[in-house]
Amino acid sequence: MAEEKNSQETSFSGFINYKQTMTSxxxxxxxxREYSEKLDLNGNINGIDEILKRMANDNFNVAxxxxxxxxxxxxxxALLGKNILPVDVLPxxxxxxxxxxxxxxxxxxxYKDGRKEQIGIEELDNYVTKLTRESEERxxxxxxxxxxxxxxxxxxxxxxxxxxxxxxxxxxTEVTMSVLPTIDAALMVIMAQAPFSESERDFxxxxxxxxxxxxxxxxxxxxxxxxxxxxxxxxxxxxxxxxEHVLKKAESVYGVDSREYQTYQRKLxxxxxxxxxxxxxxxxxxKGDVQMLEDSCFPTFEAALEKFLSEERGAITLSVPxxxxxxxxxxxxxxxxxxxxSMDMMASEFEKKYTAALGExxxxxxxxxxxxxxxxxxxxxxxxxxxxxxxxxxxxxxxAVSDAIDAYPIxxxxxxxxxxxxxxxxxxxxxxxxxxxxxxxxxxxIQNAINVALEGEAQRLAGFENYFFQATERIxxxxxxxxxxxxxxxxxxxxxxNSLVGFGxxxxxxxxxxAGWRGALLGGATGVGGMALGNIGVFGLLMPALAIPITxxxxxxxxxxVGTLSLFSSKWVVDKTFSREKIETYKASFKAQVLExxxxxxxxxxxxxxVRRQVDEAFGALKxxxxxxxxxxxxxxxxxxTQIKVELAQQQVSGSKEKEQLDEMLESINQICVRAExxxxxxxxxxxx
Length: 689
What we know:
Blueprint: H1 2-7, H2 15-38, H3 42-56, E1 60-65, H4 72-80, E2 96-101, E3 106-111, E4 116-119, H5 125-128, H6 133-139, E5 142-149, H7 152-155, E6 158-162, H8 170-179, E7 185-191, H9 198-207, E8 216-221, H10 231-254, H11 259-267, E9 273-276, H12 278-287, H13 290-295, H14 298-342, H15 347-391, H16 393-407, H17 417-460, H18 462-477, H19 488-503, H20 507-510, H21 514-517, H22 525-531, H23 539-545, H24 553-565, H25 570-576, H26 583-604, H27 607-649, H28 656-687
Parallel strand pairs: 1-6, 1-7, 2-5, 7-8, 8-9
Antiparallel strand pairs: 2-6, 3-4, 3-5
Helix pairs in contact: 2-3, 2-14, 2-28, 3-14, 3-27, 4-12, 9-10, 10-11, 14-19, 14-23, 14-27, 14-28, 15-17, 15-18, 15-27, 16-17, 16-26, 17-24, 17-25, 17-27, 19-28, 22-23, 24-27
């Protein structure tokens, strides 16, 4: 039954439905903001504005990666239904090319020095390809080119990113890798006739960040060139090899006994792999040939990509604004009930309760300060636990370098004067690759340990969340009169409360529900994440809630690898190595010079400081999120009470008209919460897969 439920489409499955869902959430948040303005709940307003800003910038970014001559540009053109990007038998793409929607076609070119230039689409080949020496030299100065074109596919909020070939050269591969942390999905294009070259295997085992693997869809092109009876066998073989490489990557980073590794094993059967003919699909779209398009198998892939983006990526994206609806609705209902209950209260009675409430608010702030001290202590413990791994890093690098040099094949002819520079360059590249691989593996292990520690701290903070909401409920309860019968307003509040309980935030009104509050201050991370903990943990939700990119391990990977490799060059080695020596002596001399340089870099680069900053950033973001959310609520509560106090002192008692308006607000909030509850249930289903 569970599998059947999970297989059902959600209300946000597909680009159109997703956009409609985002529009509906935006409308509800704006309505809650309007109510917050009427009640002067500035903290609520700030929280809603932050989410609305993030939603306004929401977009799907899809990168196409793979070797040259694999048909990446053809896949993109097939998606767009038009020949927009240059296609050639030679490696063409030399920059990042982005395709996005605009009514009027044009291209903007951004240079590495910050300059920007607008050109016509017909000029694109002369700027971003290697088709001529002139265009290749110009491409080296360009950071990226953005193609604006009236393509319906991109009208759905999709930006397509064409990347240089993985096997083109090291600089181009680095360009490709630099874009991965910013994308929602990567389409790795593989040729059916020649799958899994060295660079493709290296991409999965070494280059790509482990946390990115779940966002890779594999596109096997050219299946129309295979015999029909061989297609399924070839695709199954490619899938099996992908599983082997992915599992090897996960094993090197996490270890076979880890929870993360077990999760990868469970999900290996769900690898997204699609066999198709992009060339046939493009031709069919240009001609309008429906049958040819169907034969290309491209529509199946397109539908899967659309669902992947709108559901898998969408579930995490939508969880944050849904959580904001929860907290915003809760504070509005409490503020409304507070105003309604205080209308009949004497000023002197309110004054006493007001003083007590301020004392309770101050106590909450002190408790929060003590809680943050504990967060700091746990950050220190997390860093201390990483020290053994940090301390062994340089030894690991030295061992990797030694192994790489020893294993590299060199012949006597390679040491001749005319070949010395090329040999040194090749061996230097071998060293660089070895250092890059071990650096990324070590840094990902460290980042995973930080993630686990952060996730545990978020779970621990659920106790403080419970305390916080109990405290704010006590403050609220000070002003709630004991009534023998419910008023119309109380009746509506009861309806809202009951809908909120199922939604996970209404426990304060009908009896405190511990699970209901979990994650309310962390963007739904520990609430929804806790329900899906067996599969994904809370980290996939925690990062968006904290406004930290899910792929943030690249921060360590990038700084670590670049810092370690920055001074390696073939010229440096040639200057210090004698090319006429015997192979063993040459390698020993080469190794000695490299290890000497590593020792020098070890003294100049404090790896521990880099990791310490990562730990502080992670735990600091957690504290800041809790501080901001709780302070918004405390300030709104205090300001609301002060405003009521002034009104009572000046005998500005509101009449029946305001009560009617408040009742209308409650009814509207109730409807918003019911919609949010239905959506959250779908989110839980997606995140629990």
